Amino acid sequence: MTEKEVMQNSFFEQLEAQRETDPMIGVKTGADEIFQRLILALKDGENKVNVDLLLQMASGLAGVACQYIGKQYASARTKQIDGKEYVYGAEIDNFLLYNEYSVYGMMAGIFKKLHPDKNVPLPDGVLNNLKKNSTTEGYAVKDLENPSQYITGYCLMYKKFEPIIAKFCKDDDEIPILYALVLQKCINTADKAISYEYWFEFCLENAIYSSRQHLEEL
């Protein structure tokens, strides 16, 4: 065993021991790791990161994680609309919107921290827009046209990170929470460059839209 492997084993042994006092320590530490890797992956030739792209990738990954894990439950189902397959399910929605550590919940948490004098936007407007328009021709997530073209990219990134995340999450249900935390960190980074009205709607809509698409089994 190399010195690096010994150090890694020691790190994860310590992490496991800390779960007794902080059950979320693995998820939080894993989110830090994935956030840093995502930043590194998106840096351009000038060592800068486009924050619009950062939010797109983070919200897309969060949505993909909600489906990949949520569709393991019996509540998951597919629906054909105009010849295209979409995925729905109570557990997918719980990871997105209703669990204590849902994507929406994490977004609401960082919103309250960054803008304590503002009311947290409700998801109703985004949900209504998705229901009305997301299966129609020409649909866009805010300024992101043809969002379905990016789904395979989210899936590839998810699969790339999967072996890393497995080291931090004690079970699969923690994976959507980890990605919700990654999105929270990305929002914190992008908030000064993008209005909160825009990022809140964009991130939530892109996450939900991505979770509804038929995902590639890569």
Output the keywords.
mainly alpha; 62% helix
Low-confidence stretches: none
Any idea what the shape is?
Answer: globular
Number of helices: 9
Distance between the termini: 31 Å
**Averaged pLDDT:** 92
Report the biggest beta sheet as strand number plus sense, adding barrel if it closes: 2 strands, antiparallel
List the secondary-structure elements in sequence, H or E.
HHHEEHHHEEHHH
Q: Order of strands in the sheet with the most strands?
A: 1-2
The count of DSSP E runs of length 2 or more, i.e. the number of strands, is 4
How many individual domains?
1
Question: Could you characterize the architecture of this molecule?
Answer:
The protein is mainly alpha-helical and about 220 residues long. It has one domain. It has 9 helices and 4 strands, in the order H-H-H-E-E-H-H-H-E-E-H-H-H. The protein has helices at about 5-20, 25-40, 50-70, 90-100, 105-115, 125-135, 150-165, 175-190, 195-210, and strands at about 75-80, 85-90, 140, 145. The strands form 2 sheets. The protein has a two-stranded antiparallel sheet. Strand 1 (about 75-80) and strand 2 form a beta hairpin. Helix 3 (about 50-70) runs antiparallel to helix 4. The longest helix has 20 residues, at about 50-70. The protein is globular and about 55 Å long. The model has no long low-confidence stretch (mean pLDDT about 90).
